[in-house]
C-alpha cells in the first residue's frame, strides 16, 4: 500500500502549507517575497511551511526514517520492491539511482525544509514584530535547518549548503567539516533564541541543546557534548517517563521525555506506525482489516535474541510469531504475521491500533529526539574523558554510572556501578531501536561497524552475510540525479561508481 509520489527538483521548491498540529494550519502565501515578508502572521505562516516536508511519507514522517534502521544489524527491509535500497543496506550498491520512495524523495524533502528554513532566517529579521515572537520563530527555523542537514549529513557526508541570497551555492558540495560547522552554528544560534517552555510539536531549548550534544558527539567534541547534554539534564525541565512503553503512545507523546516530536494527526502524515505494522497480524484467528499494514521494516531475530533477561523494552519493542502476545484491533493473542520474512515484528508504535485499526495515519507523533538519548550521550562523553570508548570497550567507568543507570533502571535492569563502553553500546541499541537509525550511526561514528557487521552470520535471505568497508560504506552514495542536475559539480562519495 503506497501513495503516489511526485518528484520536485530541489532548486524549484515552493512554500507550502502544513497539515500537522493546529499551529501548522496555515495557508501558503501566493505573493511575491517583496509583498509577503511584512507581518508577524506571515512569518508564522512561513515557519509552518518549514515543518511540512518533514511530515511527508519520506523524511522524518515515514519511509526513510524507518528504513535507515535496516543499515544496522537491528532490521531489514521486508518489502522486496525496493531492490536498490536493499542493495545499499547490504553494502552491495555501486550507485544510487533512487528517485522515488525512501532516500530519493527523503533527500528532496529534507532540502525543502532547508530551503524554507533558510528563507525564514533571511527574511524574518527584517519584519517589525514582537521581539520574543521573532526570536522563537528564528530559533525554530535554526533548529529545523540543523535537524534537516544532520539527517542528510549522517547519510551522505558533505552537502550542498543552500544560501537564499545565492541560489547557485546549492550546486557546490561543501566538505564534511564545513557541513557539520553549519549544523553546529545553527544549533548554537537556536540555544540563544528558544525557551525551555514551548508549544507541543515545536522545539524548545531542550531540543536545541540536546541536538547540539548529539552533533558534538558525532564531531568527537567531548567537552562540548558533555556540557550540552548536562545543560538539558540540569535544567529540571525534562525527565524520563516511568514506563518505557508509554513513551510511544498518544497519551504521552508530549511528555517531558520528548525533546522534539514531529506532530501528527489522525488521517494525515506522519505514517510511522503503519509502516512497521504487519499486513496480516492474526492470519484469520480474529477479524482484522486485511492488508493495512505495510510491514516495510522488520527486526532481525538476532536483535530479538540480544535483549538481556528482564529488559522491559523487549515487550514494548518487538514480538515474535507464535511466542509473544500482542493486542491489536480489540483482540489479544499470539502474533501470527505469516507474511513477515523473519519471525519478529516491531510493535513500538502499535499502541493506536490496540482497540481498533484507525487508518494508515494513526496520529502518533514521531519521537525525533528523546531525553534518554541525551542521558546516554552524557554517559558516552564521561566515558571518553575517563579512558573508556570504542577502543577500550571493557574499561569500567564509575563516573558514568548516574546518567547511565537512569536509562537502565527504567528498563527494569539492575544498576551497574561502573559501566563499560560495551554496556553503553547495549543500552543505546535497545533504548533507541527503530527511532531513525541510531544504531547504525553509532557504529559508524565509533568505527565499529566493520567489526560488528562483518562478523554477523547470515540470517535467512532477508539479512544475508554482509561485507562492510568503513572507507566506503560509512556514507551512502549520493543520488545520481543530484550529480546529473549539478552538471557534475556535486561529486560522488568515495568507493562508488563515478567517484573522483
Please specify the SSE layout and strand pairing.
Blueprint: H1 33-36, H2 40-51, H3 63-67, E1 75-77, H4 83-89, H5 103-123, H6 131-156, H7 176-191, H8 205-218, H9 222-233, E2 258-262, H10 272-276, E3 297-299, H11 301-305, H12 313-317, E4 318-320, E5 325-328, E6 331-334, E7 344-346, E8 366-370, H13 371-385, H14 401-410, H15 421-431, H16 438-445, H17 449-454, H18 470-473, H19 480-485
Helix pairs in contact: 2-5, 2-6, 5-6, 6-7, 7-8, 8-9, 8-13, 9-13, 13-14, 13-15
Overview of this protein structure:
- The protein has about 500 residues and is mainly alpha-helical.
- Among the domains are: about 20-195 and about 480-485, Serine Threonine Protein Phosphatase 5, Tetratricopeptide repeat (Alpha Horseshoe), CATH 1.25.40; about 270-365, no CATH class.
- The protein contains 19 helices and 8 strands.
- It has helices at about 35, 40-50, 65, 85-90, 105-125, 130-155, 175-190, 205-220, 220-235, 270-275, 300-305, 315, 370-385, 400-410, 420-430, 440-445, 450-455, 470-475, 480-485, and strands at about 75, 260, 295-300, 320, 325-330, 330-335, 345, 365-370.
- The strands form 4 sheets. A two-stranded antiparallel ribbon has the order 1-3. A two-stranded antiparallel sheet has the order 2-8. It has a two-stranded antiparallel sheet with strand order 4-7.
- α2 (about 40-50) packs parallel to α6 (about 130-155) and α7 (about 175-190) packs antiparallel against α8 (about 205-220).
- The longest helix has 26 residues, at about 130-155.
- The radius of gyration is 22 Å and the shape is globular.
- The protein starts with about 30 loop residues before the first helix and ends in a 15-residue tail after the last helix.
- Mean pLDDT is about 90; it is low at about 1-20 and about 25-30.
Amino acid at each position: 500500500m503506497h501513495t503516489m509520489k511526485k518528484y520536485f527538483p530541489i532548486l524549484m521548491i515552493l512554500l507550502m502549507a502544513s497539515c500537522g498540529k493546529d499551529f501548522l494550519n496555515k495557508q501558503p502565501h501566493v505573493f511575491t517575497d517583496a509583498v509577503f515578508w511584512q507581518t508577524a502572521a506571515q512569518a508564522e505562516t512561513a515557519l509552518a511551511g518549514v515543518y511540512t516536508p518533514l511530515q511527508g511519507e519520506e523524511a522524518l514522517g515515514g519511509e526513510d526514517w524507518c528504513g535507515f534502521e535496516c543499515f544496522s544489524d537491528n532490521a531489514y527491509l521486508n518489502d522486496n520492491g525496493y531492490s536498490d535500497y536493499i542493495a545499499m543496506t547490504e553494502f552491495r550498491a555501486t550507485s544510487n539511482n533512487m528517485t522515488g520512495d525512501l532516500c530519493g524523495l527523503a533527500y528532496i524533502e529534507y532540502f525543502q525544509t532547508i530551503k524554507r528554513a533558510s528563507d525564514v532566517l533571511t527574511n524574518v529579521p527584517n519584519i517589525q514584530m514582537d521581539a520574543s515572537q521573532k526570536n522563537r520563530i528564528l530559533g525554530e527555523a535554526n533548529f529545523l535547518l540543523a535537524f534537516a542537514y544532520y539527517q542528510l549529513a549522517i547519510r551522505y557526508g558533505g552537502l550542498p549548503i543552500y544560501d537564499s541570497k545565492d541560489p547557485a551555492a546549492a550546486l557546490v558540495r561543501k566538505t564534511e567539516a564545513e557541513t557539520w560547522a553549519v549544523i553546529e552554528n545553527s544549533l548554537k544560534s537556536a540555544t540563544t533564541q528558544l525557551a525551555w517552555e514551548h508549544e507541543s510539536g515545536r522545539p524548545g531549548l531542550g531540543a536545541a541543546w540536546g541536538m547540539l550534544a548529539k552533533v558534538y558527539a558525532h564531531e568527537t567534541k567531548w567537552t562540548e557534548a558533555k556540557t550540552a547534554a548536562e545543560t538539558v539534564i540540569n535544567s529540571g525541565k525534562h525527565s524520563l517517563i516511568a514506563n518505557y512503553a508509554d513513551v510511544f503512545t498518544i497519551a504521552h507523546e508530549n511528555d517531558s521525555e520528548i525533546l522534539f516530536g514531529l506532530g501528527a494527526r489522525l488521517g494525515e502524515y506522519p505514517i510511522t506506525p503503519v509502516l512497521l505494522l504487519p499486513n496480516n497480524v492474526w492470519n484469520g484467528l480474529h477479524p482484522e482489516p486485511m492488508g493495512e499494514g505495510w510491514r516495510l521494516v522488520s527486526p532481525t531475530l538476532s536483535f530479538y535474541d540480544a535483549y538481556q533477561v528482564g529488559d522491559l523494552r523487549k515487550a514494548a519493542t518487538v514480538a515474535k510469531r507464535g511466542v509473544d502476545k500482542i493486542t491489536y484491533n480489540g483482540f489479544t493473542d499470539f502474533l501470527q504475521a505469516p507474511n513477515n520474512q523473519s519471525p519478529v515484528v516491531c510493535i513500538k508504535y502499535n499502541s493506536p491500533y490496540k482497540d481498533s485499526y484507525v487508518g494508515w495515519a494513526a496520529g502518533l507523533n514521531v519521537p525525533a529526539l528523546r531525553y534518554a538519548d541525551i542521558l546516554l550521550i552524557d554517559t558516552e562523553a564521561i566515558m571518553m574523558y575517563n579512558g573508556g570508548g570504542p577502543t577500550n570497550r571493557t574499561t569500567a567507568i564509575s563516573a558514568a554510572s548516574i546518567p547511565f543507570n537512569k536509562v537502565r533502571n527504567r528498563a527494569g535492569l539492575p544498576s551497574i556501578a561502573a559501566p563499560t563502553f560495551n554496556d553503553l553500546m547495549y543500552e543505546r541499541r535497545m533504548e533507541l531501536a527503530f527511532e531513525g537509525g541510531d544504531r547504525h550511526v553509532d557504529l559508524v561514528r565509533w568505527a565499529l561497524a566493520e567489526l560488528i557487521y562483518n562478523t554477523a552470520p547470515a540470517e535467512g535471505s532477508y539479512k544475508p552475510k554482509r561485507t562492510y568497508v568503513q572507507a566506503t560504506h560509512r556514507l551512502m552514495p549520493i543520488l545520481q540525479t543530484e550529480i546529473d542536475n549539478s552538471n557534475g559539480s556535486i561529486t560522488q562519495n568515495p568507493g562508488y561508481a563515478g567517484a573522483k
